[in-house]
Sequence to fold (227 residues):
Amino acid sequence: MLIGALLGAANELGIWRRLRRRGAGLIAQLVVSIGLSIALRYLVLIIFGGRSESFADYTGQTVRNYGPIALTDKDLSAIVIAIVVLVAVALLLQKTRIGKAMRAVSDNRDLAASSGINVDRVVLFVWMLGGALATLGGVLFALSELSSTVQYEMGFRLLLLMFAGVILGGLGTAYGALLGCLIVGILVQLSTLVLPLDLKYLGGLAVLIVILVFRPQGLLGSRARIG
Fold:
């Protein structure tokens, strides 16, 4: 997580802050982010190879029954860790000074700056926090796999689902993203009851299409006129 935070800081200081100061638009930044993700993915492939690496200590665990739910110890631990982190982030956003500054910058960057908030410092903190949480998410995702394996393209499979979850919940709202991703995640897992395992991610695409057609602002988002 520390390495992830440092990589997040390097991203902000080396790329995104420079792009913002040069007036790069959101579309340009989106294109850069896609190219950067491809470059980083294949850099990992060059360094570590395409083979899968497993968490040897967590393979072959015994399944325990908790009422109608069957979980291994690693699954239960991942759930507990995820809940603790979600609560911690929610408290950070609501109760701390930096959390209030983050919400202010997200809502209106110029007004936040005129109110005395150091916007660049807040954005840097968000990048570091995002990098650390993304790293933790990668570890928990790898542990949730049946064989507890890590592979260089494992995160790429989640991009569509994460995007669908954020759109479903509503852009610009952290709690909307949480709600949307929970709905999409549960839907994708339950879809395996009627769909082959290899097609379970189709549910995320279906949710994305439906929400863009009928409620583009998302479940917790607000309508906005653009143009």
About this structure: The chain has two domains: 2-152, 155-227. Residues 155-227 form one domain. The mean pLDDT is 84. The first strand starts at residue 53 and ends at 54.
